[in-house]
Amino acid sequence: MTGGGERERSMVPRAEFRSYYGRPILKRPTWKVPDVPGYLFLGGTAGASATMAAVAELTGRRELAGAGRWVAAGASVAGVAALVHDLGRPERFAHMLRVLKPTSPLSVGSWILAPFSTLATASAASQATGRLPGLGRFAGFGSGVLGPAMCTYTAVLLSDTAVPAWHEAYPELPYVFAGSALTGAAGAALLCAPRADHGPPIRMGLLGTAMELAALHRVERRLGLVGEPYVTGRPGRLLTLSKALVVAGAGLSLVSGRRAAPLLAGGAYLAAGLCTRFGIFAAGIASAQDPVYVVTPQRQGLGAAGLP
Amino acid sequence: MTSDRNRLSGPLADPTADAGYPDTHPPRMGFFTDTSVCIGCKACQVACKEWNLVPAETGELDLLGQSFDNTGALSANNWRHVAFIEQTVTPDRPPVDLGMPAIGPPAGDASDAGDGQVRWLMSSDVCKHCTHAACLDVCPTGSLFRTEFGTVVVQEDICNGCGYCVPACPYGVIDIRPGDGRAFKCTLCYDRLGAGREPACAQACPTDSIQFGPLEELRERADLRVTELHERGVDEARLYGRDPQDGVGGDGAFFLLLDEPEVYGLPPDPVVTTRDLPSMWRHAATAAVGVAVSVALSFLERGALERRKP
User: Which one of A178, A200, A202 has the shortest CB-CB distance to B291?
Assistant: First the structure.
């Protein structure tokens, strides 16, 4: 990242808008950093890793499956810890499973995360101890089936809010997170799995890179004023860095014959995943903090409503 | 008539029945805040704090320098908030000289020749108790619930402080209380309503700017009031949150305003975020399938399945 150079480009000319002493209309989300953006990254990486491990098991790539199980278990347990730590009353974390509400992405997500992390941990524990191998394999497949949902439900979590940049991006965010989860899992596998098993993660990474870049591009192009936080300020720099890292990861993963290349590719993919989640999180906060992103689009909507 | 769509957004005649209460439930209760008679006394803020034992925001006095407003916004510790807006307006008729003794610059002074007059808008803001309440929809624990009066209340013994309601609210009302960790907001004095009394703010209001009652009755009263003001030449009078067709299905607490909503710190056209939730889930499901297919494709190679055999 080049220091100093503020690339504040305004995509849409600022219309006149009125406000109450320039104060924000929306409340700043109280979700803590790094807990929640960190969880978005860990949950996605864990989900795609579990699915990768399940398919690796089916195709006889035992060592890749083993690595994927370790990553899925470790990342999901760390993710659960981050989410519990984020609560205002951590001792009441079990209240998350008090009800199942389809209108609450956090409720649905809790009911995905709880079995996913249990199954992922069980399969990793079975693998580590060599006990109950049949049940361990079954748990691994279970977490592999839940894995894709782990990757994308978090996009609904952010979009189902009044935060303009998150809500308006709801058609694209699941694909951004899906792509980023694929590159995250690919990155972890390139770091942990033996070189003979690098074929599938390399291809996963390339598919993930394409998906994430295409979806991010659409967010930037489609949203107009509300998309501004994605390309300006700190969130804009984080997302630019993320795109550079994911491209670097994809390129490095294709370099053959160099011992360090897969390690560097893996590191770049994981760093890109972190930048994507922290960038998108920060863009939402920025859009909630400035009343222009609430007032101007709503005014334009009211104007458009008058047209036939 | 009550399609799935109306359960998430759009007009909904009886949110209380929709929440599962039997037909014998009391009528939906609410507030009509007529800001044209608000005098900015903040008695509502004080009464609310006193009755509900809401703690002070900070240990020290925080002077914002924003007219007489030192509260700033609704928060976990401010369930009523009086906004003060000072505006320079062109008088619609020449001022009448009452011949009163006055202080200030002598008549004809240049500073007196300005064509502006100051207009002071005051408005007591509160939780809107939406027909389609996003805070309630997204609450994962069931802590936020719809009462038999159609209002929206947090059960503090259930709330685990996940904070989802905070960014969900399109009005920026509910918040996490620092040091406590749980979410708090106006309960429309649920305890007082249960005992057949009116909320503390409405009882304390000396000008009846805050009116409490069955929502249907308040809507009729508000319609009459806005017609009356228009007849008296106050063309800028408008109702905010009155319309059951709006983005949140109408507010349980609505307002008569004398300027655009954003001038008072209110969103001009709020929409309950869960209106788009079915579409969000569809996109997420498609993207999840995309993950599964991408992983499967990555393993496609000659002999992938034969490899299983030892």
Answer: A178
Q: Span A32-160: which CATH code?
A: 1.20.1630.10
Long-range own/partner contacts, residues B188-191 (CB < 8 A, 24 or more apart): B188/B29, B188/B30, B188/B31, B188/B127, B188/B129, B188/B149, B188/B151, B188/B153, B188/B252, B188/B253, B189/B51, B189/B52, B190/B147, B190/B149, B190/B151, B190/B153
Q: Which of B129, B121, B133, B122 has its CA nearest to residue B81?
A: B122
SS3 B80: strand
User: Is the complex ipTM higher than 0.90?
Assistant: yes
Residue ranges per structural domain of chain A: 32-160, 162-308
pLDDT band of residue A9 (cuts 50, 70, 90) is: very low
Which residues of B fall within a CB distance of 8 Å from A301? 269
Strands B253-257 and B29-34: parallel
Q: A-chain residues within 8 Å CB-CB of B260?
A: 18
| Mean pLDDT estimate for chain A | 94
User: Do A192 and A269 contact (CB within 8 A), yes or no?
Assistant: no
% of residues, chain B, pLDDT over 70: 88
Mean pLDDT of B226-243: 96
Whether B290 and A175 lie within 8 Å, measured CB to CB? yes
> What CA–CA distances, in Å, run from A250 to A21, A202, A278, B294?
47, 8, 21, 15
Q: In Å, how far from its chain's centre is CA A157?
A: 11
Mean pLDDT of B242-258: 97
Q: What is the full DSSP assignment across B274-287? A: GGGHHHHHHHHHHH
Per-residue pLDDT tens digits for B125-160: 999 999 999 999 999 999 999 999 999 999 999 999
Map out the domains of chain B as residue ranges. Answer: 14-91+112-271
- B187-227 per-position pLDDT tens digit: 999 999 999 999 999 999 999 999 999 999 999 999 999 99
Helix (H, G, I), strand (E, B) or coil at B82: strand
Query: Is the Cβ pair A160, B298 closer than 8 Å?
Result: no
The DSSP output letter for A149 is H
Q: Quick check: B247 and B270 in contact, CB under 8 A?
A: yes
**C-beta atoms of B174 and A27 within 8 A:** yes
Q: Are A126 and A135 in contact (CB under 8 A)?
A: yes
Which carries the bigger pLDDT value, residue B240 or residue B118?
Answer: B240
Which residue of A39, A91, A98, A104 is the best one to mutate when testing the B interface, meaning the one whose CB has the most B CBs within 10 A? A104
Query: What residues of chain A lie within 8 A of the CB of B174, using their CB?
Result: 27
**Nearest CA of chain B to the CA of A169: how many Å?**
10
State the fold for domain B14-91+112-271: Alpha-Beta Plaits (3.30.70)
Q: What is the distance between the alpha carbons of residues B100 and A167, in angstroms, rounded to a whole number?
A: 57
CB contact (8 A) between residue B298 and residue A110: no
